Amino acid sequence: MTITPNTLALIGNTPLVRLKGPSEASGCDIYGKCEFTNPGASVKDRAALFIVEDAEERDAIRPGGTIVEGTAGNTGIGLALVANAKGYRTIIVMPETQSREKMDTLRALGAELVLVPAAPYSNPGHFVHTSRRIAEETPNAIWANQFDNIANRRAHIVGTAEEIWEQMEGRIDGFTCSVGTGGTLAGVGLGLKAKDETVCIALSDPYGAALYDYYAHGELRSEGSSVAEGIGQGRITANLEGAPVDTQFRVSDAEGMEWVTRLLGEEGLCLGLSSGINVAGAVALGRQLGPGKRIVTILCDTGFRYLSTLYNRAWLESKGLAVPPWLARD
Ligand code: PMP
């Protein structure tokens, strides 16, 4: 037990937990990297810290400056916390269709919210383009640009991958996760391959994303849809370029939710749906690699962020998803 010198040093160095149910289901040892223990309760704190510190090193932002990003979720929360700790302002641009909870959380942390109508990416009013324009028009401001700023994946090459390698004592056969920006998959993939090129790196892709087809057949194509937040990508972002993907799985929301429910009910872990999709992918990877293999995946964020959705009976029923027995009680 040690004393951490400041709050930013609380980001990273997350625990790795052996997951009993997924290990039994696959005949392998499956481990989850507990990213929900970061101060902002998600994996995105790492990218937020690296993006801000990269801008500082390039002199792109000076004391009292402003960080602008288009995001509705975990990246905004991470950026707001990092900005507070370093004395910057945060402006977060989000579509007005996002949940009330997310807006309340970002406001509670001190971020200034700019709400824009939902629009396709090709529309200049899309929240990502709007955030870039606001950053350009604001003095002493940076645009975090998490999708194409590779300071994001560097956080996972030098942080997450190193930690996993040490925690696994260099004995790891496979790694899998899903993709939002691709920072985690590409960064951990590159970091682990640099240690041992035989580690199998697998994409776990939700329906509605185009990457499964890209890695399987070389074509960006999507089918279906997913209610998972924070994941589901339709293009090769700068963070994804050169990601060493060996194999890929498509995971349904129902499969992901089954693990979300089992991990809570049987192991006491309250997680979001991207974590469930990752665990389902890890079980699939374990079955592909064979018994006894050691596989790591990412537990991306806390389930407490989804009390009105993933942990709400009426919402689950409205999406046609199974309701856990403890939520079905009257
Ligand atoms: N899960 C959740 C809940 C997220 O918010 C994100 C970030 N968008 C991811 C997974 C994916 O992480 P990455 O951006 O590194 O691909």
Automatic annotation (TrEMBL):
Coiled-coil parts of chain: none
Keyword Ribonucleoprotein: no
Domain Tryptophan synthase beta chain-like PALP: 10-301
InterPro entries: Cys_Synth/Cystath_Beta-Synth (IPR050214), P-phosphate_BS (IPR001216), TrpB-like_PALP (IPR001926), TrpB-like_PALP_sf (IPR036052)
Required co-factors: pyridoxal 5'-phosphate
Oxidoreductase listed as a keyword: no
Domain of life (superkingdom): Bacteria
Entry's EC annotation: 2.5.1.47
Keyword vocabulary terms for this entry: Pyridoxal phosphate, Transferase
GO MF: cysteine synthase activity
Protein name as annotated: Cysteine synthase A
